[in-house]
Amino acid sequence: MSAGRAAVPLCCARRGAARGFTLVELLVVLVILGVLIALAVLGSGVAGPGRELHGEAERLAGLIGVLAEEAVLDNREYGVHLTAGAYQVLRYDPALRRWQPLPGKPHDLPSWAELSVELEGEALRLPQPVAEQGRQASPTPQLLMLSSGELSPFRLQLRERRRDGLSLWLSSDGFQLPRVELDGAKGRSR
User: Fold this and answer.
1) What is the number of alpha carbons within 13 Å of residue 154 lying toward its C-beta?
2) Which among 12, 57, 85, 158 would be 20 to 30 A from 189, CA to CA?
């Protein structure tokens, strides 16, 4: 090596070579971005009604848990009036000796979902939603949350209306709060 010339790195020695990404490198980046976007869509629940159905089941289970706690704390009786496509919270008014809906309208399920309920092993025939049957004078709850801390023992099924749709169960033995469980017959995971 001569004393007057500095060592030039090999990467910079070819000044005439074009700089940029190759087609293969660009395709790899596009594939990675596609996979990340697909994971984000699946994780956000946009991918289908199964995640929304699970959210509805968790919402109902949480509502029943909150009502059970409120019943004990307020020393009042609460109930849930169920229809095939909606549910509404009621509170017993001892002065009027009847169930009163809490302020607000019933919570409607998505049009593609429906629920059914069993009390003491017997399937109940649920009424039509309040909007379809007109204003009912005093709705009666099917599920009770008592001030003693007890609940109505029940099994509630929340499912997609299509034949091969997801089916979830909420159940309580009357003392424990309900949990959301996957219908074992389907064998599908959430």
Assistant:
1) 27
2) 85
When comparing pLDDT for 50 and 150, which is higher? 150
Per-residue pLDDT band for 130 (boundaries 50, 70, 90) equals low
pTM of the prediction?
0.68
Give pLDDT tens digits for 98-129.
999 999 889 999 888 888 899 888 888 888 76
Q: Among all chains, which residue has been given the structure tokens 């490198």? A: 25
Q: In this structure, are residues 57 and 116 in contact, taking their beta carbons and an 8 Å threshold?
A: no
Is the distance from CB of 122 to CB of 172 less than 8 angstroms? no
Q: What's residue 98's pLDDT?
A: 93
- Which residue's structure tokens are 């496509």? 85
What is the dihedral sign for C-alpha 15, 16, 20, 21? negative
AA identity, residue 144: L
CB contact set of 167 (below 8 Å; sequence gap of 6+):
157, 158, 159, 160, 182, 183, 185, 186
Torsion of CA 186, 115, 52, 62, to 10 degrees: -110
